[in-house]
């Protein structure tokens, strides 16, 4: 904004002490005219208040843009539930409200890959120490190489998703890319291996959700592959058949030249002092209303497609791609999704210190959108052209929420300041500042699966 230095800097205080002569009057009139003209032209040199008014956040009488700290906190309280010294990526909560976290090895070794919280700061390896670090004598299909997330399904089984990619490597160790299910006592129930035929182009399985009823048997697992080419993977939990779909299509690939924002700062990837662009593909995933929802991390895009379509081997790749719904961008880079039993999908909005959501069932919509009134009979989906993404919470406590889980009315999430980690920092410095807290915020719903 230009400002005019040619305007007289008259001082009102001095003017009022001037004698009430005709000359003084005319000066005052001229002054007010000048002030008016300059105000209209936005030319006046504003005198900034030396103190900020008390923050009035509620109601239309509140102010914006008066104080440097006028950032708004949106939504209800965000309550800490656990504190980690390392940055976690995965989070689960079980019916006894035990908390599970994963500490992946994308940026080097971690002593434990999966832990259960024993107190606010206490942790122990889960299910036990022997799983945590594959040793040369262990079969890599039976221990953890690089677990990204731990997820509770609807029949109280905990699933871990292991990318199988050892620290420093680009591709999974043969036999190491897998999902494993455990009961709540930590007994291994099942292991599903990604076949070597699907390892091509640095397959990097990142997140998993389970539909325990789909297909009538033991259900299906749905996974995101965050490799640069991206894909959505399904696993038939009856016979272990694995399908990789949407591979190398725009709906699972990053935006070329993508630059995100974190805590108000543009974020690139860095190789030392060489600037590179982040190219992380399909990452966060949730199941809701019979659909698979996912986002592309290095983008502000999200999509959904029918679960039935993803598991249908008779469909061509072109048919699966054609069935993908595009509800418009979600307005944020995102590393995690979850969903509740009202068909609400939550998007961990890392660019905004926020959690966004979108209602996918018309019965939950509370506003008239494009002429369609709120509410409606149960289970009627909102068509993609009427999706409206909204903010659940925005709060400086939310420093890159990465994984979320819903239980008993609360939405839980871990935070890890991902964009301050070496990969995203100039000259690969680690600008993260622990501790890394996990939080819960009230949503009043149960988990979708
Ligand atoms: C704004 O302030 C006026 C005067 O105090 C009050 O009458 C009105 O109810 C307030 N409006 C809102 C939306 O808070
Ligand atoms: C490694 O473990 C997997 C899963 O239990 C099993 O299918 C495979 O046969 C084992 N491989 C060897 C060499 O024992
Ligand atoms: C990492 O990759 C190298 C080859 O690029 C391979 O020799 C090595 O075994 C891999 N490490 C693990 C733990 O798989
Ligand atoms: C697994 O089951 C699915 C669905 O019934 C079927 O399409 C597929 O061929 C089966 N795979 C194997 C290896 O039996
Ligand atoms: C991915 O698709 C592009 C065209 O969109 C193609 O040039 C490239 O070779 C594909 N990559 C792989 C690994 O198939
Ligand atoms: C990073 O840069 C170095 C040297 O400039 C190069 O050898 C290396 O391949 C680069 N790494 C990546 C992941 O691009
Ligand atoms: C799981 O699959 C069943 C059967 O197709 C479907 O009714 C249900 O909506 C799916 N669950 C979710 C959360 O999408
Ligand atoms: C719909 O719900 C949201 C979130 O609770 C609220 O902010 C909004 O005001 C509601 N809209 C209407 C029309 O009630
Ligand atoms: C980058 O970091 C290395 C140490 O890792 C240091 O030696 C080098 O001076 C740094 N370069 C710049 C430009 O800061």
Automatic annotation (TrEMBL):
It is found in: Secreted. Keywords: Secreted. It comes from the Eukaryota. The keyword Zinc does not apply. Pfam families: MRJP. InterPro entries: 6-blade_b-propeller_TolB-like (IPR011042), MRJP/yellow-related (IPR017996). Signal peptide: none annotated. Belongs to the major royal jelly protein family. PANTHER family: MAJOR ROYAL JELLY PROTEIN, PROTEIN YELLOW-RELATED. This is Major royal jelly protein.
């Amino acid at each position: 904004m230009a400002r005019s230095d040619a305007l007289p800097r008259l001082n009102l205080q001095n003017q009022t002490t001037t004698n009430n002569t005709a000359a003084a009057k005319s000066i005052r009139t001229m002054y007010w005219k000048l002030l008016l003209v300059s105000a209209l032209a936005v030319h006046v040199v504003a005198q900034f208040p030396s103190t900020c008014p008390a923050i009035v956040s509620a109601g239309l009488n509140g102010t914006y843009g008066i104080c440097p700290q006028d950032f708004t906190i949106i939504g209800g309280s965000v309550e800490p539930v656990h504190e980690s010294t390392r940055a976690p990526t995965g989070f689960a909560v079980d019916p006894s409200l035990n908390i599970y976290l994963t500490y992946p090895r994308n940026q080097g070794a971690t002593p434990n890959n999966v832990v259960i919280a024993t107190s606010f700061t206490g942790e122990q390896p889960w299910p036990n120490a022997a799983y945590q670090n594959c040793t040369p004598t262990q079969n890599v299909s039976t221990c953890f190489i690089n677990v990204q997330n731990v997820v509770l399904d609807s029949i109280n089984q905990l699933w871990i998703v292991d990318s199988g990619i050892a620290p420093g490597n680009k591709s999974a160790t043969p036999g190491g890319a897998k999902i494993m299910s455990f009961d709540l006592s930590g007994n291994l129930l099942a292991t599903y291996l990604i076949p070597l035929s699907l390892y091509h182009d640095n397959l990097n399985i990142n997140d998993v959700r389970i539909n325990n009823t789909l297909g009538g048997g033991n259900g299906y697992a749905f996974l995101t592959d965050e490799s640069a080419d991206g894909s959505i993977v399904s696993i038939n939990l009856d016979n272990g058949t694995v399908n990789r779909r949407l591979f190398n299509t725009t709906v699972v690939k990053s935006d070329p030249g993508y630059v995100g924002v974190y805590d108000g700062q543009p974020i690139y990837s860095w190789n030392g002092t060489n600037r590179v662009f982040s190219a992380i593909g399909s990452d966060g995933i949730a199941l809701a209303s019979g659909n698979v929802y996912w986002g592309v991390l290095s983008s502000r895009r999200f999509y959904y497609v029918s679960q039935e379509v993803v598991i249908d081997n008779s469909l061509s790749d072109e048919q699966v791609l054609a069935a993908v719904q595009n509800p418009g961008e979600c307005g944020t880079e995102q590393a995690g999704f979850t969903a509740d039993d009202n068909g609400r999908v939550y998007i961990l909005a890392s660019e905004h210190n926020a959690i966004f959501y979108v209602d996918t069932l018309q019965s939950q919509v509370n506003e008239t959108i494009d002429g369609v009134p709120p509410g409606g009979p149960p289970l009627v989906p909102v068509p993609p052209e009427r999706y409206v993404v909204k903010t659940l919470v925005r709060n400086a406590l939310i420093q890159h929420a990465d994984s979320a889980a819903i239980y008993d009315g609360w939405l839980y999430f871990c935070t890890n300041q991902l964009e301050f980690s070496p990969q995203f920092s100039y000259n690969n410095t680690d600008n993260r500042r622990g501790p890394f807290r996990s939080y819960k915020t009230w949503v009043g719903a149960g988990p979708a699966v």
